[in-house]
Amino acid sequence: MNTLQGYLRPNGQIGIRNYLAIVAATDAANPVARRLAAAVPGCVAITPLYGRGQLGDDLAQSVRTLIGLGAHPNVYATLVVSLERSAGERARQGIAATGKTCELMGIQEAGGTQQLFRRAKALLETWLQETRALKPVPVRLEQLTVGLECGGSDTTSGLVTNPAIGLLTDRIVDAGGTAIFSEPVECLGGEAALADRAESQDVARRIDATIRKYEDIAQRAGIDLNKVNPAPDNIRGGLTTIEEKSLGALCKSGSRKIRGVLDYGQAAGRNGLYLMDAPAAATENLTALAAGGCHLILFATGAGNSIGNPVSPTVKICANPHTCDSFADHIDVDISPVLREGLPLAQAAEAIAGFMAEVTHGRETRCETLGETEIAISRIGESV
Amino acid sequence: MNDNDQRIWVVHADDNVGTVAGAGKGGVSRGSRLAVAGAYDGTVEASQDIPFGHKLALKAMSSGAPVIKYGKTIGRLTADVGPGEHVHSHNMESTRGRGDLLRK
């Protein structure tokens, strides 16, 4: 493995970026958050929808996710903005409790978005100066948490890209690092193999219950899940059923024991391999993985998918020769030589590991360069 | 399109379908004899045109039979298929998440 580097945070965590996060705690603050992110280098806007009129578990999941994103190790400091200060207070407290520098500004208290923009820009520019003095330190693989994702899948995802990522996942886990795969709906059909890999009976039961939850949604609604997933691009790419898609998707989790099941956006308490409970749609899933503290996300695509996460650099990996040519702007690691020239999978995994190391040294992913990043926090209840 | 650039990738020795996945970007034409790669060596003849990335039956199978890939069931056939035939949404279906089948 090539050398890795990062920045040591005051709370002992390692970050591979020094982003300044602007977290909109209510959607009314999204526009000014985006304008600020565009005005100051190094800023990322975290602009989910909603934020008012939520309650119960739904509110708790939204706030937990916002805190996970604002307190992310790749973030140097976070500014929370909301319509009124009180609406952003819970997020600010949660982020500050992790030891992260965090300020809160309310649009009402500031006297409008223009006033807030001027004050916030000055603050962000101060933080930006501070980040320029930071020096990177060497990082060991065991200090990294890597998210695993696939989107815009086709049959090459399950035959080549996910298996290549799986080889790297095994290396990460063997080195004492942490890897998180998710998309439990894309485990349907692969339950038996996952149960065999559970570290305990309790973990096996939780894996099974987490997967069944998503099948039950389709059963209760009287709908064929396969009309939604696989999606049309998956089907054009040769995937016929959810079982086929799942068995290919699961290859990215490698072969090691599964230590536990994480709730949406929950951080892993210990090192090892975890399944996270989150919907499979890419933006929602990336949001959950990033909120769980993934330093970067390895994202397999076949037909092509352009989206990434603003705080967790998202590495697009593709084996489909056609997509690698026609969608090249969005592909970070082209492993189509596996199909074109018979390149061994182990060498494809090596190429992914090499790129991952470069990302820790500051190399931008295509998503970062192009600004193809977005947040969507999954809703589990109605607004009132 | 050059069929010589295409292979039929078989993941597991128990599989009864393979995938068109070789160096070429196009699919395969009816009547092409294609090399099998992966779980075992051999050849198979495509009995119809099949796009890149799509599945082909490795033997004759009856409607209702399980479709096996990765050594596991990925669905069942909804029509009889012959060797070398295209296997996809038109002749196979999922058995999971089928809330539609529970509907009165």
Q: Could you characterize the architecture of this molecule?
A:
The complex is a heterodimer of chains A (384) and B (104). Chain A is of the alpha/beta class and 384 residues long. Helices cover 43% and strands 17% of the residues of chain A. Chain A folds into two domains: 4-132, Rossmann fold (3-Layer(aba) Sandwich); 141-360. In chain A, strands 10-11-9-8-12-13-14 form a seven-stranded parallel β-sheet, sandwiched between helices. Chain A is globular and about 60 Å long. The relative contact order of chain B is 0.21. Chain B has one helix and nine strands; from the N terminus they run E-E-E-E-E-E-E-E-E-H. A six-stranded mixed β-sheet of chain B has the order 4-3-1-2-5-8, with no helix packed on it. Chain B has a three-stranded antiparallel β-sheet with strand order 6-7-9, with no helix packed on it. Chains A and B meet through helix 6, helix 8, helix 10, helix 12 and helix 13 of A and strand 7, strand 9 and helix 1 of B.
What is the count of helical runs of chain B?
A: 1
Secondary structural class of chain A: alpha/beta
Overall number of structural domains of chain B: 1
What's the overall geometry of chain A?
Answer: globular
- State the share of residues found in helices of chain B, binned by percent: under 10%
Radius of gyration of chain B: 14 Å
In terms of per-residue confidence, which ranges of chain B show pLDDT below 50 for 5 or more consecutive residues? Answer: none
